[in-house]
Amino acid sequence: MFSKSKVDMKKPANNQTNSPRPGVAATPSIIGADVQIEGNIKTIGELQLDGAITGDLVCGGLVMGESGSVNGTIAAETVTIRGNVSGQIKAKSVRLEKSAVVEGDVYHESLSVEAGARLTGRFAHTSGSNQQATATPIKNETAETPSFVEAKKAAAE
Fold this sequence. Notes:
Layout: H1 6-10, E1 29-31, E2 36-38, E3 41-42, E4 46-49, E5 52-54, E6 57-64, E7 69-71, E8 74-81, E9 84-86, E10 89-96, E11 101-103, E12 106-113, E13 118-120, E14 123-125, H2 147-156
Parallel strand pairs: 1-4, 2-5, 3-6, 4-6, 5-7, 6-8, 7-9, 8-10, 9-11, 10-12, 11-13, 12-14
């Protein structure tokens, strides 16, 4: 009832899957809490980060756990931060959860900030016409200045 024929048993098992490189990565990459990376990382797929990265990160999507940290620029389509970031974030959708600590500017099209999240820097809304979110981090001289910064400068003068 549960047996295979002798011919089927001699065939090697085909456990190989097609490489995700030609298309979108199907499985997210995971960087564990005990991993420390020095250098830039680039992937088209999703990244779950619980470790530490010193360098720039370009990815399709980032989910950073509470133990995760990045000391560098993050560029992605979607970003969820629960850990520490020291550097710029540029993404279409940014979510800072209550345990997030960000020291740097956040450029976004869509933004969500939970009560308790800490930011030392500024938020700036970017238009949808700038499609470089996952290709190149934005430079400060091309960034929009938020209205509250302009108002603060005018009040100081």
